[in-house]
Amino acid sequence: MSPRFEEIDWRPTPMGDISLRRRRDPVTGQDVHEVKLGDEFLMSSLFTAGEIALARLGLAALPDAGTGAELDVVVGGLGLGYTAGAALDDPRVRSLIVIDALPDVIRWHEEKLVPLGARLTADRRCRLVQGDFFALAGDPRGLDPARPDRRFHAILLDIDHSPRHVLHPRHAALYRSGGMRALAGQLHPGGVFALWSNDPPDEEFTAVLAEVFAAAEAHVVDFDNPFQDGTAANTVYVARKGPGT
């Protein structure tokens, strides 16, 4: 039996101290992995429905869903790896780049300190890249440092709490029209951008997406929350470029 609580790793970062913890949940009896940045909880293996739905909803929105297409995908934000894992569940995905600003988060996966580490690092389609997603999103050379000017079929983003509640003030520019246009330029025609949010659907942000993309919608993802003796919800925004853009 694992101990009731263990701090697996702790490191200072430019955004605050980050820690990886494992505890035995008294409600479910499961081992739960949690990541904290400073005093804020960033993610928990107890609540993964939104992260998984981000990949599934985003990839399902591609126009060639259900065909033998081969997809190149970017995930912004590695975390505990659940969005990346769900993307790799799609057999159409031939390559996946996962970008995270914190080298320690990547190291957790490489050293198998988190539940999905062994799976992600063993999949030849998956490449973990240390970098600033927000800087790369606005860089004309693109999101893949190894292949400038490369385009992608889908970009799936789960870093900030929401477009309004960002982890760093400089992230906010991405969620405005100019930032979304720069990001859309890194997608193939018909490509998809999808975003996880911990807040309810935001009409103002949905309008920004509709201004830049050919189609945009917000999906509410409900999931069980044993701490509230009921359900909680995340939002997944899905926006698609037109076929000729």
Kindly report the name of the CATH homologous superfamily: Vaccinia Virus protein VP39
> What is the helix fraction of residues, given as a range?
10-25%
CATH architecture: 3-Layer(aba) Sandwich
Mean pLDDT: 91
> Radius of gyration from the CA trace?
17 Å
**Numbering strands along the chain, what is their spatial order in the largest sheet?**
7-6-5-8-9-11-10
Could you give the order of the helices and strands?
EEEEHEHEHHEHEHEHEE
Number of strands: 11
Question: Separation of termini?
Answer: 55 Å
- State the low-pLDDT regions, or none: none
Strand content: 35-45%
Q: How many alpha or pi helices?
A: 7
Spatial shape = globular
CATH topology description: Rossmann fold
Tell me the domain tally: 1
Classified by CATH, the class is Alpha Beta
What does the largest sheet look like?
7 strands, mixed
- Which structural class matches the secondary elements? alpha/beta
Provide an overview of this structure.
Helix 6 crosses helix 7. The N and C termini lie far apart (55 Å). The protein has a single domain, classed as Vaccinia Virus protein VP39 (Rossmann fold), CATH 3.40.50. It has helices at 49-60, 82-88, 103-110, 117-122, 133-137, 177-184, 203-212, and strands at residues 5-13, 16-24, 31-37, 40-44, 71-76, 93-100, 126-130, 152-157, 187-197, 215-225, 230-240. 37% of the residues are buried. The chain is α/β, with parallel strands linked by helices and 245 residues long. The chain has a seven-stranded mixed beta sheet with strand order 7-6-5-8-9-11-10. A four-stranded antiparallel beta sheet has the order 1-2-3-4, with no helix packed on it. The model has no long low-confidence stretch (mean pLDDT 91). The chain is globular, with a radius of gyration of 17 Å.
